[in-house]
Amino acid sequence: MELNLADFIVIAVLVGAGFVLSFVGLWLMLRQVVHEQQRSTTRQLNEFAGTLKALETRLAELSRTPAMPPAAAPAGIQTPVAAAMPVPAAPQQEEVTPEILVVIAAAVTAFLGKKVRIRSAKMLGSRPQVANPWSQQGRALIQASHHLRFRG
Fold this sequence. Notes:
Elements: H1 5-64, H2 98-112, H3 127-130, H4 133-145
Helix pairs in contact: 1-2
């Protein structure tokens, strides 16, 4: 069985047409998938913007609520004068406010994609309060004593 030039041309045209049809089909499918991903991303961004707007509104409401006035002492009971006895100044720790907890929860929810509940949070002190300078120096000495090999 011999193939002549016309047969080779027909085969080449059929193979080329198959490649072109495959390319066009795959390109259209890719455009459709990209379009669906863009719609999904836009929808998620709109949901996030709505959630953020609701949180900002809630934060504004919480910041507008007046603080409760201190309870008055019942009649007939004398309260001691605070100026009579000096109180030693205790180191004041910043308290984590409910607004900050709401913002942290919203950020974690946005990052993880599911609702979270913060059970506790506390502010850490500055770096010297977190780690003792003596322990930092000890760590630095130990790490400096390690002999690292460089592979080049």
